[in-house]
Amino acid sequence: MDNNDFFPPHDGVSLRELASYLGAELLDETKAERLVRSVSPVSRAGEGDVCYILSRKFRDELETCNATAILCEPALQPLIPSHIAILSTPKPHTAFARAGAFLHPKAMRVVPTVSGEGISPAAYVDPTARLEAGVTVEPMAVIGAHAEIGSGTRIGAGAVIGADVKIGRNCCVAPTASVMCALIGNGVIIHNGARIGQDGFGFAPGPAGMLKMVQIGRVIIQDNVEIGANTTIDRGAMDDTVIGEGTKIDNQVQVGHNVRIGRHCAFASGVGIAGSTRIGDGVQIGGATGVNGHITIGNGAQIGAAAAVIGSVPAGARFGGHPARPMQDYLRDMAEVLARSDERSKKRGKRNG
């Protein structure tokens, strides 16, 4: 990749210092003073880069790799060419994530639209709003009445923070996002165009058509949550919609009213969660999955991509398919379908022959 003006390389950190920071073991101390400046995939890593491998499938790419260092677990060390320093760790993926954050700290937060700190004269901040010292508000952002925003938080250009919203410290609200009827914890990242706290989808049939149901709940987002671009999280109808600490939500996800999501979950793009569903801690849901309302997904469950979850999922279970069912059953069913399809194809071939 050409030189990146958006996220330029680090000034340089020695392998000794990087290994210490990551808690990794540098196997060859003669390479301790080599400098690392950026991260890279194995396929194009060069001088000054650190990369990582998780399996032997990278063997061919290693033959042309010129990285300064590679993070890997002990079992893979014999694969590494002698000119590349080995940073040994039992969790190379986690270590690589930490290395990336160390070398490119700017990339860990929403990229500022304008330089500088403080409140732009082109922003509107209601006189009754309370902003701690160190809050940055970019041009054309709007801060509503009685809103409260903590120190170190940045509100992007064109973002809208509604009346009485409370946002904690060291948060990022990206350009054009809107936050209404919500209480936001510390260290939360809300990406471009996200919509937080609008009323949920609730209607009752009446003689003249659909009657709108009142939506008087809130959205509560706990510490260190990340919400992707153009994701929508509806406020509760009469209870709260809650997103638990450390949960990561990808772009274009829909979270319905009264949904409660536990701690440290991960949802990929296109997931839709209908109202009043309860999701436990550590749940992972693959992209484009639909989750029915008023069901429970237990702690640690994993749902495969493009699944249709129509009933509750036990804790620790792995589900997939339409409708979603235990992954072992789903894969067996798919194997049977493919086998029957192959048999029909062979029969057609015989008839045509």
TrEMBL record:
Give the metabolic or biological pathway.
Bacterial outer membrane biogenesis; LPS lipid A biosynthesis
MF terms from GO for this chain are: N-acyltransferase activity; UDP-3-O-[(3R)-3-hydroxyacyl]-glucosamine N-acyltransferase activity
Domain UDP-3-O-[3-hydroxymyristoyl] glucosamine N-acyltransferase non-repeat region positions: 34-100
SUPFAM superfamilies linked to this entry:
Trimeric LpxA-like enzymes (SSF51161)
Gene Ontology terms describing biological process: lipid A biosynthetic process
Q: Which InterPro entries match?
A: Hexapep, Hexapep_transf_CS, LpxD, Trimer_LpxA-like_sf, UDP_GlcNAc_AcTrfase_non-rep
Q: What class of enzyme is it?
A: transferase
So what does this thing catalyse? a UDP-3-O-[(3R)-3-hydroxyacyl]-alpha-D-glucosamine + a (3R)-hydroxyacyl-[ACP] = a UDP-2-N,3-O-bis[(3R)-3-hydroxyacyl]-alpha-D-glucosamine + holo-[ACP] + H(+)
- In the UniProt entry, which residues are flagged as the active site? H257 (proton acceptor)
Could you tell me the EC number(s) of this protein? Answer: 2.3.1.191
- May I have one GO cellular component term? membrane
PANTHER family found in the cross-reference section: UDP-3-O-ACYLGLUCOSAMINE N-ACYLTRANSFERASE, UDP-3-O-ACYLGLUCOSAMINE N-ACYLTRANSFERASE 1, MITOCHONDRIAL-RELATED
- Function, as annotated: Catalyzes the N-acylation of UDP-3-O-acylglucosamine using 3-hydroxyacyl-ACP as the acyl donor. Is involved in the biosynthesis of lipid A, a phosphorylated glycolipid that anchors the lipopolysaccharide to the outer membrane of the cell.
Regarding protein family, the annotation reads:
Belongs to the transferase hexapeptide repeat family. LpxD subfamily.
- Full protein name: UDP-3-O-acylglucosamine N-acyltransferase
Read off the lineage from the record: Bacteria, Pseudomonadati, Pseudomonadota, Alphaproteobacteria, Hyphomicrobiales
The gene from which this protein is expressed is: lpxD
